[in-house]
Design goal:
Shape of chain B: globular
Number of helices of chain B: 3
Order of helices and strands of chain A: EHHHHHE
Strand order of the largest sheet of chain A: 1-2
Oligomer: heterodimer
Structural class of chain B: mainly alpha
Largest sheet of chain B: none
Radius of gyration of chain A: 13 Å
Largest sheet of chain A: 2 strands, antiparallel
Chain lengths: 74, 133
């Protein structure tokens, strides 16, 4: 049975790597609410491509360093 | 708590208050008690939660997704209620459904729509309550 594809992220690790950046600071930089950052870190929300780019930009890294697509196995 | 959650709670409180007022006044005032449903206009106050506060973002794409899903659920429940009411009305009232029932059904429909939407919004946000710092 094929597993469901998912998108994981390293937002939490990258936040701490950038001098303990708070969820609110990242939210303000990316133009979203803090609750959205919380949902992203918990893996409960997959962002749009535009928001993914904004978050990567706010963290100062490329989008592929933040998000990882785990495709469905066949 | 997000602006959408505050708005949802306000809607539920207003709906509950309007229902309580109508039920409380009905024995004394009869059908005039339905004027208490005008309290539902207070739902309009939820625009206050969506006004911007400084540079901080009030709602974003995730809030829009949650709201869109909540609206779909609300219209689904409303449609079921509408069909059920249409099927049951002749059984309850015979072939002459009172005009008062038709008039009040508009308010009931509004309460179902806003109430279910608000509950759906709160349920969706509730699933993400942990992991905050």
């Amino acid at each position: 049975m094929p597993s469901k594809p998912s998108v994981t992220n390293r937002i939490r690790q990258l936040r701490f790597a950038r001098g303990e950046m708070t969820q609110q600071q990242l939210a303000d930089a990316a133009g979203v609410t803090r609750q959205t950052i919380i949902a992203l870190e918990a893996g409960r929300y997959v962002p749009s491509l535009l928001l993914a780019f904004r978050i990567a930009q706010a963290l100062g890294v490329g989008i592929e360093e933040v998000f990882c697509f785990n495709g469905a196995s066949r | 708590m997000t602006a959408a959650q505050k708005a949802a709670w306000l809607n539920l409180i207003v709906i509950a208050s309007a229902t309580i007022v109508v039920v409380a006044l009905y024995p004394a005032f009869g059908s005039k008690a339905f004027a208490g449903l005008s309290l539902l206009a207070l739902c309009a106050l939820n625009v206050l939660f969506h006004w911007g506060r400084g540079r901080r973002v009030v709602s974003d794409e995730r809030d829009e997704h949650i709201n869109r899903r909540a609206v779909v659920w609300a219209y689904g429940v409303l449609w079921l209620a509408f069909v059920s009411a249409a099927l049951l009305a002749p059984l309850v009232f015979g072939q002459a459904v009172p005009v008062r029932v038709i008039q009040n059904s508009v308010w009931v429909a509004f309460m179902i729509l806003i109430g279910v939407q608000s509950i759906a919004v709160l349920v969706q946000y509730g699933r993400e309550a942990s992991h905050a710092e």
